[in-house]
Amino acid sequence: MIGHRLRIARAAASLSLRDLSAQIDGLVTAQAIGKYERNEDMPRSGVLLALADALHVTEEYLLSDDELVLEGVEFRTRPNTTAREEAAIEASSIHLLERYLAVEDLLHLKSVDWEKPRSAPYPVSDIRDAEDAARSVRADWGLGNDPIPQLAELLEERGIKVLSLALQNMDGLAAKVRRKDHMAARVVVVKRDAWSERKRFTLAHELGHMVINPAPGMSDGEIEKAAHRFAGAFLMPADTLRAEMGSSRSSVSIGELVGLKVRFGVSIQAIVYRCKDLGILNQSAFERLFKLFNQRGWRKPPYAEPGAISPKWEEPKRFERLCFRALGENLIGEPRAAELLGISVRELDARLDSEVQ
Predict the structure, then answer these.
(1) How far does Cα 78 stand from its chain's mean position?
(2) Range scoring the smallest mean pLDDT among 84-93, 227-236, 332-341
(3) What is the pTM of this model?
Protein backbone atom coordinates (compact mmCIF):
# COMPACT_ATOMS: atom_id res chain seq x y z
CA MET A 1 0.00 0.00 0.00
CA ILE A 2 1.27 3.44 -0.91
CA GLY A 3 -0.38 5.59 1.75
CA HIS A 4 2.62 6.32 3.99
CA ARG A 5 5.09 6.93 1.14
CA LEU A 6 2.65 9.11 -0.79
CA ARG A 7 1.87 11.24 2.26
CA ILE A 8 5.57 11.72 3.07
CA ALA A 9 6.49 12.62 -0.52
CA ARG A 10 3.62 15.12 -0.76
CA ALA A 11 4.52 16.75 2.56
CA ALA A 12 8.17 16.92 1.53
CA ALA A 13 7.09 18.77 -1.62
CA SER A 14 4.97 21.15 0.53
CA LEU A 15 1.88 20.35 -1.52
CA SER A 16 -1.69 20.15 -0.27
CA LEU A 17 -4.00 17.46 -1.63
CA ARG A 18 -5.51 20.05 -3.98
CA ASP A 19 -2.06 21.24 -5.05
CA LEU A 20 -1.04 17.70 -5.95
CA SER A 21 -4.27 17.15 -7.87
CA ALA A 22 -3.52 20.31 -9.85
CA GLN A 23 0.07 19.17 -10.46
CA ILE A 24 -1.25 16.09 -12.27
CA ASP A 25 -3.75 18.22 -14.24
CA GLY A 26 -6.75 16.95 -12.30
CA LEU A 27 -6.23 13.37 -13.39
CA VAL A 28 -7.80 12.46 -10.06
CA THR A 29 -9.36 14.64 -7.37
CA ALA A 30 -7.88 15.73 -4.05
CA GLN A 31 -10.42 13.45 -2.37
CA ALA A 32 -9.12 10.48 -4.36
CA ILE A 33 -5.52 11.25 -3.37
CA GLY A 34 -6.65 11.42 0.25
CA LYS A 35 -8.07 7.92 -0.11
CA TYR A 36 -4.74 6.69 -1.49
CA GLU A 37 -2.93 8.18 1.53
CA ARG A 38 -5.35 6.47 3.92
CA ASN A 39 -4.87 3.19 2.02
CA GLU A 40 -8.57 3.10 1.22
CA ASP A 41 -7.87 2.82 -2.51
CA MET A 42 -5.00 2.22 -4.95
CA PRO A 43 -4.29 4.40 -7.99
CA ARG A 44 -4.29 2.83 -11.42
CA SER A 45 -0.92 2.64 -13.19
CA GLY A 46 -1.33 5.88 -15.16
CA VAL A 47 -2.21 7.84 -12.02
CA LEU A 48 0.64 6.25 -10.08
CA LEU A 49 3.11 7.34 -12.76
CA ALA A 50 1.70 10.88 -12.77
CA LEU A 51 1.93 11.12 -8.98
CA ALA A 52 5.52 9.87 -9.02
CA ASP A 53 6.50 12.41 -11.70
CA ALA A 54 4.83 15.27 -9.84
CA LEU A 55 6.58 14.35 -6.59
CA HIS A 56 9.96 13.62 -8.23
CA VAL A 57 10.10 10.05 -6.97
CA THR A 58 9.89 6.65 -8.66
CA GLU A 59 6.90 4.35 -8.81
CA GLU A 60 8.99 1.78 -6.96
CA TYR A 61 9.49 4.27 -4.13
CA LEU A 62 5.74 4.82 -3.73
CA LEU A 63 5.05 1.09 -3.79
CA SER A 64 7.75 0.12 -1.28
CA ASP A 65 6.53 -1.15 2.09
CA ASP A 66 9.78 -0.33 3.95
CA GLU A 67 8.22 2.26 6.25
CA LEU A 68 10.61 4.62 7.99
CA VAL A 69 9.54 6.53 11.11
CA LEU A 70 11.16 9.35 13.06
CA GLU A 71 10.71 9.05 16.82
CA GLY A 72 11.29 11.63 19.52
CA VAL A 73 11.66 14.46 17.01
CA GLU A 74 13.14 17.61 18.56
CA PHE A 75 12.95 20.76 16.44
CA ARG A 76 15.30 23.70 17.01
CA THR A 77 12.75 26.27 15.92
CA ARG A 78 12.14 29.99 16.17
CA PRO A 79 8.91 31.41 17.61
CA ASN A 80 7.14 31.92 14.26
CA THR A 81 7.59 28.36 12.96
CA THR A 82 4.25 26.80 11.99
CA ALA A 83 3.10 23.23 12.48
CA ARG A 84 2.87 22.85 8.69
CA GLU A 85 6.50 23.93 8.30
CA GLU A 86 7.56 21.39 10.92
CA ALA A 87 5.60 18.65 9.15
CA ALA A 88 7.19 19.52 5.81
CA ILE A 89 10.70 19.46 7.29
CA GLU A 90 10.06 16.14 9.02
CA ALA A 91 8.79 14.69 5.74
CA SER A 92 11.79 16.05 3.82
CA SER A 93 14.10 14.48 6.39
CA ILE A 94 12.40 11.09 6.02
CA HIS A 95 12.50 11.45 2.24
CA LEU A 96 16.27 12.08 2.25
CA LEU A 97 16.91 9.42 4.89
CA GLU A 98 15.14 6.80 2.80
CA ARG A 99 17.48 7.52 -0.10
CA TYR A 100 20.49 7.46 2.24
CA LEU A 101 19.48 4.08 3.70
CA ALA A 102 18.71 2.71 0.22
CA VAL A 103 22.30 3.42 -0.87
CA GLU A 104 23.67 1.75 2.26
CA ASP A 105 21.54 -1.30 1.43
CA LEU A 106 22.88 -1.36 -2.13
CA LEU A 107 26.43 -1.37 -0.79
CA HIS A 108 25.55 -3.97 1.89
CA LEU A 109 26.56 -1.54 4.63
CA LYS A 110 24.96 -2.11 8.01
CA SER A 111 23.10 0.96 9.22
CA VAL A 112 23.41 0.20 12.90
CA ASP A 113 22.67 2.22 15.97
CA TRP A 114 25.13 4.98 16.64
CA GLU A 115 28.37 4.40 18.52
CA LYS A 116 27.33 5.62 21.93
CA PRO A 117 30.26 6.68 24.15
CA ARG A 118 30.85 3.83 26.59
CA SER A 119 30.21 5.99 29.67
CA ALA A 120 26.93 7.47 28.36
CA PRO A 121 24.33 8.44 29.39
CA TYR A 122 25.87 10.94 31.77
CA PRO A 123 23.74 12.02 34.74
CA VAL A 124 23.16 15.78 34.79
CA SER A 125 21.48 17.46 37.74
CA ASP A 126 23.30 20.78 37.40
CA ILE A 127 24.36 22.64 34.27
CA ARG A 128 28.00 22.23 35.31
CA ASP A 129 27.63 18.45 35.05
CA ALA A 130 27.42 18.95 31.28
CA GLU A 131 31.05 20.05 31.39
CA ASP A 132 32.06 16.63 32.75
CA ALA A 133 29.87 14.91 30.15
CA ALA A 134 31.64 16.70 27.28
CA ARG A 135 35.03 15.79 28.73
CA SER A 136 33.96 12.14 29.03
CA VAL A 137 32.71 11.94 25.43
CA ARG A 138 36.03 13.28 24.18
CA ALA A 139 37.87 10.73 26.32
CA ASP A 140 35.63 7.81 25.24
CA TRP A 141 36.07 8.71 21.57
CA GLY A 142 39.81 9.35 21.90
CA LEU A 143 39.60 12.95 20.72
CA GLY A 144 42.07 14.55 23.11
CA ASN A 145 41.73 18.32 23.64
CA ASP A 146 42.42 19.59 20.15
CA PRO A 147 39.74 21.44 18.14
CA ILE A 148 37.61 19.16 15.95
CA PRO A 149 38.25 19.98 12.26
CA GLN A 150 34.96 18.69 10.80
CA LEU A 151 32.26 17.74 13.25
CA ALA A 152 29.73 16.41 10.71
CA GLU A 153 32.29 13.88 9.47
CA LEU A 154 33.11 12.82 13.03
CA LEU A 155 29.46 12.21 13.91
CA GLU A 156 28.83 10.25 10.71
CA GLU A 157 31.87 8.09 11.49
CA ARG A 158 30.18 7.34 14.83
CA GLY A 159 26.94 6.24 13.15
CA ILE A 160 24.89 9.44 13.39
CA LYS A 161 23.27 10.42 10.09
CA VAL A 162 23.83 14.12 9.41
CA LEU A 163 21.52 15.64 6.81
CA SER A 164 21.56 19.10 5.28
CA LEU A 165 18.29 20.71 4.21
CA ALA A 166 17.05 24.15 3.17
CA LEU A 167 15.34 25.11 6.43
CA GLN A 168 13.24 28.15 7.22
CA ASN A 169 12.58 29.44 10.74
CA MET A 170 14.61 26.68 12.36
CA ASP A 171 18.24 25.65 12.83
CA GLY A 172 17.67 21.91 12.69
CA LEU A 173 16.15 18.83 14.26
CA ALA A 174 17.22 15.58 15.88
CA ALA A 175 15.42 12.25 16.08
CA LYS A 176 15.70 8.48 16.30
CA VAL A 177 15.10 6.56 13.08
CA ARG A 178 13.27 3.25 12.96
CA ARG A 179 12.31 1.06 10.03
CA LYS A 180 11.05 -2.48 9.68
CA ASP A 181 13.58 -5.25 10.36
CA HIS A 182 16.41 -2.80 11.04
CA MET A 183 18.08 -1.45 14.15
CA ALA A 184 17.48 2.12 15.26
CA ALA A 185 19.70 4.93 14.04
CA ARG A 186 20.14 8.59 14.94
CA VAL A 187 19.75 11.59 12.68
CA VAL A 188 20.56 15.27 13.00
CA VAL A 189 19.39 17.76 10.38
CA VAL A 190 21.16 21.11 9.96
CA LYS A 191 20.31 24.22 7.99
CA ARG A 192 22.15 24.04 4.68
CA ASP A 193 22.90 27.73 4.21
CA ALA A 194 23.81 28.49 7.84
CA TRP A 195 27.35 29.58 8.59
CA SER A 196 29.42 26.53 9.52
CA GLU A 197 30.19 27.90 12.98
CA ARG A 198 26.43 27.78 13.70
CA LYS A 199 26.09 24.30 12.17
CA ARG A 200 28.89 23.02 14.39
CA PHE A 201 27.27 24.35 17.54
CA THR A 202 23.92 22.84 16.51
CA LEU A 203 25.57 19.45 15.93
CA ALA A 204 27.39 19.57 19.27
CA HIS A 205 24.19 20.69 21.03
CA GLU A 206 22.26 17.73 19.60
CA LEU A 207 25.06 15.36 20.59
CA GLY A 208 24.66 16.74 24.09
CA HIS A 209 20.99 15.81 24.12
CA MET A 210 21.92 12.27 23.03
CA VAL A 211 24.43 11.64 25.81
CA ILE A 212 23.16 13.48 28.90
CA ASN A 213 20.57 12.06 31.26
CA PRO A 214 18.78 14.98 32.94
CA ALA A 215 17.79 14.54 36.54
CA PRO A 216 14.05 14.29 37.30
CA GLY A 217 12.59 17.72 37.83
CA MET A 218 14.90 19.60 35.48
CA SER A 219 12.89 22.02 33.34
CA ASP A 220 13.08 22.10 29.55
CA GLY A 221 14.95 25.39 29.83
CA GLU A 222 17.52 23.89 32.19
CA ILE A 223 18.01 20.90 29.89
CA GLU A 224 18.56 23.25 26.92
CA LYS A 225 21.14 25.21 28.93
CA ALA A 226 22.88 21.95 29.82
CA ALA A 227 23.03 20.98 26.12
CA HIS A 228 24.43 24.43 25.33
CA ARG A 229 27.06 24.03 28.04
CA PHE A 230 27.92 20.59 26.67
CA ALA A 231 28.33 22.01 23.15
CA GLY A 232 30.64 24.78 24.33
CA ALA A 233 32.73 22.36 26.39
CA PHE A 234 32.87 19.77 23.60
CA LEU A 235 34.00 22.28 20.96
CA MET A 236 36.22 24.37 23.25
CA PRO A 237 37.81 22.22 25.98
CA ALA A 238 38.54 24.29 29.07
CA ASP A 239 42.28 23.57 29.25
CA THR A 240 42.79 24.37 25.56
CA LEU A 241 40.85 27.63 25.73
CA ARG A 242 42.67 28.74 28.89
CA ALA A 243 45.98 27.95 27.20
CA GLU A 244 44.96 30.32 24.40
CA MET A 245 43.52 33.13 26.54
CA GLY A 246 44.86 32.80 30.06
CA SER A 247 42.80 32.18 33.17
CA SER A 248 41.46 35.70 33.74
CA ARG A 249 40.89 38.62 31.37
CA SER A 250 39.22 42.00 31.85
CA SER A 251 38.91 42.60 28.10
CA VAL A 252 39.47 40.96 24.73
CA SER A 253 39.63 42.47 21.24
CA ILE A 254 37.47 41.51 18.28
CA GLY A 255 40.65 40.60 16.40
CA GLU A 256 41.63 38.09 19.07
CA LEU A 257 38.12 36.63 19.07
CA VAL A 258 38.25 36.21 15.28
CA GLY A 259 41.53 34.31 15.65
CA LEU A 260 39.94 32.02 18.23
CA LYS A 261 36.94 31.58 15.96
CA VAL A 262 39.21 30.27 13.20
CA ARG A 263 40.94 27.92 15.65
CA PHE A 264 37.84 26.40 17.24
CA GLY A 265 35.31 26.78 14.41
CA VAL A 266 32.67 28.43 16.58
CA SER A 267 31.01 31.83 16.61
CA ILE A 268 32.49 34.82 18.41
CA GLN A 269 29.41 34.87 20.63
CA ALA A 270 29.89 31.21 21.59
CA ILE A 271 33.52 31.94 22.52
CA VAL A 272 32.48 34.83 24.77
CA TYR A 273 29.78 32.72 26.45
CA ARG A 274 32.34 29.98 27.02
CA CYS A 275 34.81 32.44 28.52
CA LYS A 276 32.14 33.68 30.90
CA ASP A 277 31.21 30.10 31.91
CA LEU A 278 34.87 29.36 32.68
CA GLY A 279 35.42 32.62 34.56
CA ILE A 280 37.96 33.85 32.02
CA LEU A 281 35.79 36.95 31.41
CA ASN A 282 33.82 38.61 34.20
CA GLN A 283 30.18 39.67 33.88
CA SER A 284 31.07 43.28 33.12
CA ALA A 285 33.35 42.34 30.19
CA PHE A 286 30.73 39.87 28.93
CA GLU A 287 28.01 42.54 28.92
CA ARG A 288 30.23 45.09 27.14
CA LEU A 289 31.00 42.62 24.38
CA PHE A 290 27.38 41.61 23.85
CA LYS A 291 26.34 45.25 23.73
CA LEU A 292 28.88 45.66 20.93
CA PHE A 293 27.58 42.54 19.16
CA ASN A 294 24.05 43.97 19.28
CA GLN A 295 25.21 47.31 17.90
CA ARG A 296 26.92 45.61 14.98
CA GLY A 297 23.92 43.38 14.22
CA TRP A 298 25.74 40.10 14.75
CA ARG A 299 23.04 38.64 17.00
CA LYS A 300 20.36 38.68 14.28
CA PRO A 301 20.07 36.89 10.93
CA PRO A 302 22.19 36.55 8.87
CA TYR A 303 24.57 36.53 11.90
CA ALA A 304 27.27 38.09 9.75
CA GLU A 305 30.16 38.10 12.21
CA PRO A 306 33.67 38.73 10.91
CA GLY A 307 35.52 35.59 9.92
CA ALA A 308 32.33 33.78 8.92
CA ILE A 309 33.03 30.15 7.98
CA SER A 310 31.49 29.04 4.68
CA PRO A 311 28.35 26.86 4.95
CA LYS A 312 30.12 24.32 2.73
CA TRP A 313 32.79 23.61 5.37
CA GLU A 314 30.44 21.58 7.58
CA GLU A 315 28.33 20.17 4.76
CA PRO A 316 27.92 16.39 5.35
CA LYS A 317 29.42 14.45 2.44
CA ARG A 318 29.08 10.76 3.31
CA PHE A 319 25.78 10.22 1.46
CA GLU A 320 27.18 11.76 -1.71
CA ARG A 321 30.32 9.64 -1.45
CA LEU A 322 28.22 6.49 -1.09
CA CYS A 323 26.20 7.42 -4.18
CA PHE A 324 29.42 7.92 -6.15
CA ARG A 325 30.69 4.57 -4.88
CA ALA A 326 27.49 2.76 -5.89
CA LEU A 327 27.79 4.36 -9.32
CA GLY A 328 31.47 3.44 -9.60
CA GLU A 329 30.71 -0.19 -8.69
CA ASN A 330 27.97 -0.30 -11.37
CA LEU A 331 25.26 -0.97 -8.80
CA ILE A 332 23.28 1.96 -10.15
CA GLY A 333 23.31 4.05 -13.31
CA GLU A 334 23.64 7.81 -13.63
CA PRO A 335 19.87 8.47 -13.70
CA ARG A 336 19.41 6.58 -10.42
CA ALA A 337 22.42 8.30 -8.81
CA ALA A 338 21.06 11.70 -9.83
CA GLU A 339 17.65 10.79 -8.45
CA LEU A 340 19.13 9.70 -5.12
CA LEU A 341 21.11 12.94 -4.83
CA GLY A 342 18.13 15.04 -5.89
CA ILE A 343 19.99 16.65 -8.80
CA SER A 344 19.94 16.48 -12.60
CA VAL A 345 22.12 14.07 -14.56
CA ARG A 346 23.92 17.11 -15.97
CA GLU A 347 24.80 18.35 -12.48
CA LEU A 348 25.87 14.83 -11.51
CA ASP A 349 28.26 14.74 -14.48
CA ALA A 350 29.68 18.09 -13.41
CA ARG A 351 30.28 16.82 -9.87
CA LEU A 352 31.89 13.64 -11.15
CA ASP A 353 34.21 15.68 -13.38
CA SER A 354 35.17 17.89 -10.47
CA GLU A 355 36.02 14.81 -8.45
CA VAL A 356 38.39 13.66 -11.21
CA GLN A 357 40.11 17.04 -11.26
Answers:
(1) 16
(2) 84-93
(3) 0.86
